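Researcher: Watch the backbone:
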Amino acid sequence: MESALDHTGHAHEPLRIHVERVVRQYFAMLGDEIPTDLYELILKEIEQPLISVVLEKSRGNQTKCAQILGLNRGTLRKKLKIYGLM
């Protein structure tokens, strides 16, 4: 059975597969260097585009965006300010 391809030509894979691939590439790029605060770095890298896309899909409706993300509206607004999305 053939896999469906996305716009980049890659087979549809679970998000966790993409994250694993990128983390492995990151470590390969670092070589012997040991990163610090990797967990926080990855969360920030994922959170901003996630919020941005959901806000776009909810047509700027913060209440709807917060519901989709499973956040309360106050938390969403705080994150919007942090990422300059307001």
About this structure: The radius of gyration is 16 Å. Residues 38-57 form the longest helix (20 residues). The domain at 15-82 is CATH 1.10.10.60 (Arc Repressor Mutant, subunit A). The chain has four helices and no strands.
